[in-house]
Structures are given as C-alpha cells and as structure tokens.
Amino acid sequence: MRLTPLALAMMASSVLVGCGGSSDSNDNTNQGPGPVLPPPPELLNFAIVGIATDAPVANAAVEVQIGGQVYSVQADDSGIYQLAFEYEAGSLGDDEMVVITATGEGSQDHIRLISQLGSFKAIQAQAGDNGVLEPSESSRTSITQISTALHLLAQDTGVSLSDDAALAEAEAQIESAELLELAALIKVLADNPEFTPEQGTILELLTPENGQSVEQAIEDYLLANGLMDESGQWSASFAAALAEATTETLNDQAVTRAFSADELVGLHVVTATPAPGWVAGSGTLIQFYQDGRAEVQNPNASGYMMRDNLSADWQVTAQGQVVLSYDDDALGLLQFEELSREEVAERWGESVVPAVFESFEEVKMLPTQRQYLRDSLIRLSDGAVNTIAMVRESKVLIVLDEMGIEWSGTLPYYTESQQTTHSWHLPGDVASVWQTAPTGSWALPLPASIKGLYDEVAWEYSVAQQVTLTEDGDVLDAQGSALGEWRFADGVLSVDTESGWSVTILPYAEVDGLLSAAVLTNQGTIRDSDISWIAQFDQATSTLEQDLVQPRPFVLNAWINTWQASVSEDGLLDPASAIWGYLMQEDGTMYRVYPDQWIDGDSEWVPGDYYFYAENLFNWTWQKEGAHEFSYQGERDYGSVMMDRKRNWTAIRTLSDGRHLVLERSYMRWDYYDTPELNFEGVFILPRINVLAPLDLSRYDEMYQRSESACSLPWFESCSYNPAPMTTESLTLPRD
C-alpha cells in the first residue's frame, strides 16, 4: 500500500499526540520532541510511447516489465500505446533490463509480440528530461515481428541478456538472413488465417524449451502442422505466404527502422554476420559523400581481383529507406550462358530470337551483361551493428554487338531484383582499433605482380604479403627488400608502394589478434575497395608444428570459410562449405579429407547423404621447410598429362584458443607428354591468410558412421581403406 504525503502527515500528527497524552505528571523524566520521520519518498513519472504492429494489433494489452515491476496499458485501435507510470525514486534499479510485450485480443489473441528496450538507465537517457520515451528516441518502442524475432534470436545465442553490453553482443551474433526469415514467419502466423496457431500465442510457440534452439522450435511446429516435410521443404502455400510476408515486412515503415541523412556520410562496412569468435573476412565498402554522391565497391571485385569502384547518387526516401542510383556505366562482367530459343524469347522477347539463332540452332552460348540500376537499403534493426535488407535492381542485357550482330537502338534487356541481407556498420561505428602506429611484421593486403595459373601474363593482384613496417617509415618484404613507404594518422595506415600504388588500411574489428580491415587501393583511375583479414606476425606464439599430426578422429581443418555465422548450426560446421581437412602422418604421407555426397542409388545410403572421404590420389607428402614454414605436395599422372601441386603455409601466430593463422599460397603445373606447347603453370591459390585448427570428425555422427561403412577414412579397423573414389569420376578432378 502506497501512502500519500497527506496520510503520512496525519500519521506523524497522531504519533505526536499519542506521545504527549501518555506523559505521567508524577514522572520527572524530560520528554523529548518525539521521533523525526524521514521525508516521504519522491514520486517520479516515466512514459513509453510506441506501436504494437505486424499489422496493427488493435487494443493490444501492452505490458512493460522492469525487474519485478509490471506496468500495463491498452493500445488503441491502431495499436498505438502511451504507457505512463509512477514510481518511487530508487524503487527501480537503473541496471534492470526493460522488456515490453503486446498481446492481442479477440481474433488476434494468438498474437504476442515482444521488444527488448535495454536497461532502465539507458532508456531514461534516451527519453531525456521530460521522461517520455518516444519512437524518435528509441525505435525499440515499436513492438513488431522484427523486434520479436530479434529478442528470440538474441536469447538463442546463449548470451545472458543481463545488461546493455550483453544485449548488444547477442544481437551482433544474429545472422541477418535468419532475422528477416523469422520476422516474416511471425507475420504469417499472426495474420494468415490458414496458418494461425489453434492454441497458444506465437511467442509461446517459438520460445524454445528443454534446451532446444529457436530453429528447432520452428521446425517442430511446421512439421506438426504439415507446413514442412522431413527434408526441410516448405509446402507451396506456406512458401508463398512467407515470400509475401517478407515483402510486406520490408515495405512497412512502422516495422522497419528509418535512416536519417546525418548518420550516413562517411564509410560504411557491409558484411555477412560473423560467427562468435570471428571477424569478417570479406564484404563491401560504401562511401557516402556530403554532396549526395556515393562510391560503392564493385560487385565484380574479389579479395584478389581489383576493380574500379562504382559511382552513384544517394538519397533518403520519405519512408526512411536509402536509395543508391548508379551511373550508366555501372556494368557487371561479361557472362556467357547456354540458352535455348524458348529461354531467350521468355527473357528478351520473340523479336530477339531470329537475330541470334540460325534456323538449325536450338541452343546457343550467348553473352549477357548486368547493368546495375539501384539499391534500396532497408534497416531491420539498429545498434552497434545494423541489420539491413538490400534490394538490388538490375538490367540484364544480351550483348549482341559481342556476337557481331547489329542492333538498332537500345540492346534488349529484362529487369531483375535480388534481395539480400547484411550486417551493416554505419560510419559512426567504423573506428580504428589501432591507437598507435603498427610497426613490426604484418600480413597485409598489397598489390603484387603474379602470374595466376590461367593467366597468360602476370597481373597486379591484391594479396596478403609478409611485410615489415620499420620505425623510420620503410615497408620491407619478407626478404628485406624495399616495397615502399608508410605513414600513420588517425588510426589509418597508408602505404605508398614502389610500383605506384597507394593503399590505406583501417582495421575496424579484432578478435584475439585476427583483424578485419577496410582496404582502399588506388592507382591512376583505379579506386578499388575491399574488406580483408590482417594480422601481426608473432611466430613465438605459434604451435602449428605440434598440431600438424592429429590423432584419430581429428583432422587439421582449414577454417577460412567458417567466419560466417551462416555456415554453422548448433556448434557444427556445414559440411559442404566449411570442412576441408588434412590428415598428416608421422611418416610424411598425407590425405586431404573433405565431405562428399553419395550418388549411387544402389546402396543403403540415400543419394545426397554426406560422408567423409580421405583422398590421396596425388600421393601427397608433407614436410617442414623452415622454422615456421610447412608445405605439402603431390603429383598425378592422368595418362596424357602430369599435374604437380604444392601448397605452402607460413605460420603467422597462434591465437589463445589454439587456432593457427598462416600465410597460405599454392602452385600448380600441367605437363603434357605429347604436346608440351600446351604446358601451363602458375599460382593456383593467391597468397591469403588462412586459419588452421583441429576438427573432431566424430562429432558428425551420421557422416562418420557412413564413412566407416564406406571405408573412406584410413583409420577404421573394420575394413580395408581404398583411396579410390567411392562415388563418381568427378572426385578425381582437382579440388581446393
């Protein structure tokens, strides 16, 4: 029971009267003035204003929980709420996390959405002096399918959401595509009568129990309701509803977060979502300028191949989206596709068919090229890392002049839209991790003249190189020869090479000695952008040599493709994209171990099932070449040609969790016995940073059992291993 100041004053008065009336006239004891009561507690007010919507949740019951206190209000017909409450000063802890929920009524009683606002201290600071938290001050006051998906997936990371830092850490781990997909699924369950749950709320259905993940809870519901089959395929009607809900989510400005122009000028870092313990190994850089122009990393650029950035105009729409409109010369690489008459007619129109096909031709290799028109950027969540959906619109041209065909007017084209999701660092969140000049030995991406395997002559590639940054500003290569000069200012390393390239490196993220850096490489008219790993050499920490030979059931795995959160699930790597191992023996022999899919239907295995295959078709051997230099090599006789291969690793450092950073490169040579003029050789894997660490194959239970059944690993005692391929001749082709 809370007492008003008037009641407290009356109580104080009655106490004083009572004391006076109880005095004894015969008592000579001196009576004091009575007890001094503390002042009544200060009463404070706070309010939260927002909306409950995936489509508006009319008259929703909105509750905010701060520690053990719950305050509630009913939203209006449009889902808009104003939740005001009074509290005694000190009764609500500043560090208490604030969660707000909205529950529908009547036909919407299955809808229960949630949003994590942050700590009470944080939202008080956002609200300012008037104590009213408005949507313009915190987008989290919108209780939506996105905020609900964000909350569920943040909990799913295993990070305790006990403070603002932990909440930010958990949300940074959420895979961007998974966030949008879950938000769309919530909208389908909320709004589509065909898929609305018969009992319980959406939040209850999707909240994992008994150690499940959110994905497992979703799969259980979809399987139980016939919306997904055992192979993971959605029903046609559910897939269509999900696609529609995705589009509606992206187009609903009450659900998405608006951009403001003043937060956009500067360098943007766009990547896939890094897995815990990793930083991004690749991505896209975009520079927004004050004058409304933008410079965008060329989609055709890779970690090695340098391409000139694209130019565009940018603007913020009335809906709070960002639109990049590309200049007319924003063209992709020329591609060749084998297309039929019907496909050409469907894409470019019937009038094009007689121009490209002879009367006797039904299928033909045709040149096509993509012209980038515009990108629409839609913010799904904000924070230290934003989640962004990008819709890219392009023209796909059939390049008739490449075929020597004259065509009057504009080249035939059709338009295409592609939607992707990304983790997005806005300029305010792109800051250098370097506080002082990075002297010493580093693995840095710098241009080098290299003849690749399929190159006729050497080209300039941006590759990882071992360099030393001396105290007096020189850049030296691994042999001590001069490469150029360097300078350092405001956290950015600038290198001017002897060959005329200017390279700036801004490392914006670091995990235990592995850094992700924004790299800008310029020469003349070429302005190339990229995101790359860099690392400082500390070979004294390297324990790679001790990990080369692994005991059964371990292999030494290459983890270069595992930094993306999307390639792992429940702690296990996706076999197809992330497992590539080496089984090195004490005697210097070696197998390469990778997953392959069973193809032959005449067996107990299902075609497409993965198993581990140890390949030794090249009679691989490994060796130590120097104090921190290791290699493996092999050769294979194909009958008419001999192929030689070699891969080198130079140890960079070992991280605290045992992962080994190495500078990796490989070389290949083809020698034709009868036609030596066809011989060719060159660098197959251009120099790069890779990560090596042991991997326990037995964690993949079913794959491991299939491998024993196939006798495809050399250590099983129940069978006699044969390194010949178990499936098709395709396994004999080179793999890396």
TrEMBL record:
It comes from Ferrimonas balearica (strain DSM 9799 / CCM 4581 / KCTC 23876 / PAT). This is Lipoprotein. Residues 1-18 form the signal peptide. Keywords: Signal. The lineage of its organism: Bacteria, Pseudomonadati, Pseudomonadota, Gammaproteobacteria, Alteromonadales.
